[in-house]
Amino acid sequence: MEKYSYKNIILLFLISSVIFTSKWFFSFYYFNDSIDIKIIFDAEVDGYFYYYYTKYIADLNFVDLFTNNVGNSVAGQAFSSLLLHAILLKFFGLYGFLIGDFICIFLFLFIFYKICCLLNFTNLFSISMPLLVFCIPLIIGISFLNEFSILQNFKHIYNLRYPNPMVSNLFLYLFIYFLLKMDKNYVLSFKNMVILSIILSITFCSYFYYFIAEVITFFLFILYKENSRFFLQFGKKIILLLFSLFVFFIISSPFIFILINAEPDYMERVGSLIVNDNQKKLLLNHFFAKIFSLNFLIIFAMNILITIILKFKKSVNINFKIIFDLFFISTVISPILFIQFSPKIVPLYYFNFTIFISLFLALFFGFCFLIQNFFQKITTCKRILYLNYFLILSLFLVNFTYRYTEYSSLKLDKNYTQFRKNFSLVTNKIKSQNNFNNIVTFDDRLMIWASLYNFKKIPLMSGVLTSVPHQTIENALFESFKLLGLNENNFLEIFKNKKSSWRFLNRYTQIFFWYRYSANSLTTHNNSTDFDKNDLEFIKTISPLHSQSLAIPNYELTRLKMDFIDFKISSDFNPNYIVIFDKKMISMIKKKFNNECYIVNSKDLFFLALHNNNCL
């Protein structure tokens, strides 16, 4: 296998180039806008949010940039998954995000290639399988499989949403690779424990859901390998453990410091919640109901059956299959242990993604081992070779089909294309005036853009992008509304609760308050029941894991209304720009500004340049 390694790395580089090109070719083909617009609009899902944190890490500024908070409290944001892009941003500017995409694609393929090599797969099979794994979420996305909600969870195996799972999943798969390699030459040495500690540290500082599963997996792995020898040389093993903990805490100390000093209101907005015993019981019952459901038990039995068959066939990969099973078991156990022993919880639905990733790995490689065992008895090697080539070409086609479908659909969406054009118009105008001082906007994308261009003040920031207390965000909203001549009724209309098919979601509540107003069968704001009767009944039906369901209680809306009325706008609140893209909010604005201050005033773009006091 080693003699192919150099050529294989080149081949993986070329495959990565094809995947990378399949995305950005269609972006440049369909949308003629600048790189700053592309990295924001073409980011997967809401990945652009993390550009803000990446920017201040690149600037070595670990205090919230846009607050006047006397305490300089910080945002408790995991950072290790942002470091690569922060370094690239520092040296290559905004193109660093594109370079980071390419590097992550290559690293994903390379890690899986190394895993396949460990698993005794053939050379070409080790090349094609990483590409297949990468494409599985895309296949689900463009096929009838997307209609099955349970299969949508497998989209988190890997995709280019920054930084999770684009970067954080690399740490998880690196841990899997380390464990498989350690199984081949098992020894508890200082070297292995240092490597383990580093992997666990960067995972902890990136995505702690994976960290918990990794710790449990490694513990089960040690029990499996040591067996009856567990207590032999126990003192040496304790020393190794203490040394590993020392290395772990040294590397993790910056993130631990950030968590300790994080603004409590910020932690509430990102979903940190103190739960009582009854709430823990509700969560545990929910997880146990899912684990012992018929569908889950069938899948679990199928996985066990594959392991038994491989054991019966004396597969050379049986130990590797058991490691995947241990990881699967660990991901099932991890949310239960976290709920039971943690004094606070965070959004728990991310544990589901971990479970589905581990389930996929166990089943996918289990079937690969069965296929490998079958083809060992077949001598028609050329057919297998051609089959691998056909698979690689087919997966390239899947990539291009997925990206073509994605971008052609966006191009046909008139609302989206108009919004993107308006966004470009606004940013190009600001860049031409070379004034990056103070901007007020209710659009989260423009907030991110302004932060990338080092605006001195962005009074209105998303609640997950600033560490200021809730009151500061509320005051900034009141001030911005009053500057536009909007009243308390307009405020309530903008922030009223909105019901969708499975949750409550008001986009503005989400942008500025996030999980502060989570509303599901587990919790509401201050455990309030002050909702309209029908709304309260609906809230009780929402899964306790769906913390992204957001609804503001009636009494809280009343408080916000009274605080709005009492608030006095500050004389030094003088933004250079006011930008609004929301048609509904624009229609509410009745205040007239001097004609010279309007850059655009249409139904879908309200753009003011307030460069002198005559505008206000």
Layout of helices and strands:
Layout (H helix, E strand, L loop, with lengths): L4 H26 L4 H7 L9 H8 L24 H10 L2 H24 L4 H20 L6 H4 L15 H17 L5 H15 L3 H19 L7 H28 L2 H6 L3 E2 L2 H15 L2 H19 L5 H24 L2 E2 L3 H27 L5 H32 L1 H20 L5 E3 L2 H9 L17 H14 L4 H7 L12 H7 L19 H9 L12 H13 L10 E4 L2 H6 L9 E4 L4 E4 L7
Parallel strand pairs: 3-4
Antiparallel strand pairs: 1-2, 4-6, 5-6
Helix pairs in contact: 1-5, 1-17, 3-4, 4-5, 5-6, 5-8, 6-17, 8-9, 8-10, 8-15, 9-10, 9-11, 10-15, 13-15, 14-15, 14-16, 15-16, 21-24
Description of the structure:
The protein is mainly alpha-helical and 616 residues long. It has 25 helices and 6 strands. The protein has helices spanning 5-30, 35-41, 51-58, 83-92, 95-118, 123-142, 149-152, 168-184, 190-204, 208-226, 234-261, 264-269, 277-291, 294-312, 318-341, 349-375, 381-412, 414-433, 444-452, 470-483, 488-494, 507-513, 533-541, 554-566, 583-588; strands at 273-274, 344-345, 439-441, 577-580, 598-601, 606-609. The strands form 2 sheets. Strands 3-4-6-5 form a 4-stranded mixed β-sheet. Strand 5 and strand 6 (606-609) form a beta hairpin. Helix 1 packs parallel to helix 17 (381-412).
